Amino acid sequence: MNAIAVLGGSFNPLHVGHLRLAIEIHEAFGPLLERVDILPTAHPPHKLEQYVLPFSVRVELIGEAVAPYPWLRCNPLEGERESPSYTWDTLGLYQEREPGKEIFFVLGSQDYVQLPGWYHGLDIPRRCTLVVAPRGFYRPEQFIWDTQHMWPDTRLGTPLTANGLCMEGSCGRIIFQPLPWLEVSASLIRERWLLGRCIDYLVPMGVSRMLESRREEIRHLWS
């Protein structure tokens, strides 16, 4: 148990799809993981911040959702920086603060194929083990092709789970791990909430209660 799985995002707001993904990651890699971190971005580099709830509010909402799970926590690390929340920089902070821990950075296949356009995107596996969760029709064959296109010397290695794949090379280790996805989006939740529609079972109950208790403040930020 010397690894930490990290799920990053704006979480505007955190919903059941995010929470379920954290649970699936924990169950897939359980014996290897010390914990799973939900890592909200403070300053998302590719999103308009005027429609994103303040970092402190998102941290509170996530805290409500993770409270029942002792292995799951909200990590407010990115709130310490004023600069854009680039994954490369954040992983460097993890290396400094979690010495000796392996970091499993989880991302969906739609983000994985865009790594060449990220800040230091092709260097990211040097600071973590990438865990790619496929969405839609993203197949293992496509993962292998995309991985070797980005890092030509990668080859199939020993998988960590019964139904996963592992690619290894000079860049590091990259894992393809099929996981169930719930088709829920934060934009759908914001839209329904602003219209006064019920969002039960789309977000954890604690998140729903907090959104309602701060309705005027949050309505102004999301409108």
**Which percent band covers the strand fraction?**
15-25%
Mean pLDDT: 94
| Residue windows where pLDDT falls under 50 for at least 5 positions | none
Main beta sheet strand tally, sense and closure: 8 strands, mixed
Structural class by secondary-structure content: alpha/beta
Task: Work out the helix count.
Answer: 8
Find the count of extended strands (DSSP E, 2+ residues): 8
Strand order of the largest sheet: 3-2-1-4-5-8-7-6
Helix share, percent: 25-40%
Overall, the morphology is globular
N-to-C span: 44 Å
Cα Rg: 18 Å
Q: What is the N-to-C succession of helices and strands?
A: EHEHEHEHEHEEEHHH
Topology of helices and strands:
Layout: E1 3-9, H1 16-29, E2 33-40, H2 55-66, E3 72-74, H3 87-97, E4 102-108, H4 109-112, E5 129-133, H5 140-150, E6 155-156, E7 165-169, E8 172-176, H6 186-194, H7 205-213, H8 215-222
Parallel strand pairs: 1-2, 1-4, 2-3, 4-5, 5-8
Antiparallel strand pairs: 6-7, 7-8
Helix pairs in contact: 2-7
Could you characterize what this model shows?
GO terms for molecular function: ATP binding; nicotinate-nucleotide adenylyltransferase activity. With 223 residues, the chain is an alpha/beta fold. The protein has eight helices and eight strands. It has helices spanning 16-29, 55-66, 87-97, 109-112, 140-150, 186-194, 205-213, 215-222; strands at 3-9, 33-40, 72-74, 102-108, 129-133, 155-156, 165-169, 172-176. It has an eight-stranded mixed β-sheet with strand order 3-2-1-4-5-8-7-6, with helices on both faces. Helix 2 (55-66) runs antiparallel to helix 7 (205-213). The longest helix has 14 residues, at 16-29. The chain is globular and about 55 Å long.
